[in-house]
Amino acid sequence: MRPERITKTPEVVRASTPITDPSMKDIPLAYLMAVKNNENLDDCCRDFDNMHVELQKTDPALESANKLVVACGQCGKKQTRFVGGSANTKAG
Predict the structure, then answer these.
(1) Mind spelling out the 3-state secondary structure of the chain?
(2) Which of 9, 10, 26, 34 is most deeply packed, by most CB within 10 A?
(3) pLDDT single digits (tens) 22-70
(4) Quick check: 51 and 73 in contact, CB under 8 A?
(5) Closest to 69 (Cα-Cα) out of 44, 39, 45, 42
(6) CA-CA distance, 10 to 69, in Å (whole number)?
């Protein structure tokens, strides 16, 4: 018999904020450029003026956020990027 599956709901470190907000300057540009340069996404989803980012921690033991949820402010579609290494994604 399989053990019961343990699921964790990510903890929101910072609520959805427009990427153009000065408080979002610490988001690694490489993650945002991956969304912007993704030709499979609609044009509205690739526009920085429409991007909103929510920072999440997938494990409460982590010091800072390790998951970025990039949402389009126009159509509402979401893209997820996981942050690794020393990226600064602390709530500020």
Answers:
(1) CCCCCCCCCCEEEEEEEECCCHHHCCCCHHHHHHHHCCCCCCHHHHCHHHEEEEEEECCCCCCCCCEEEEEECCCCCEEEEECCCCCCCCCC
(2) 10
(3) 988 888 888 888 888 999 999 999 999 999 999 999 988 888 889 999 9
(4) yes
(5) 45
(6) 11
The CA angle 23-37-48, to the nearest 5 degrees, is 30
The Cα–Cα gap between 11 and 67 comes to 10
Beta bridge partners of 17: 53
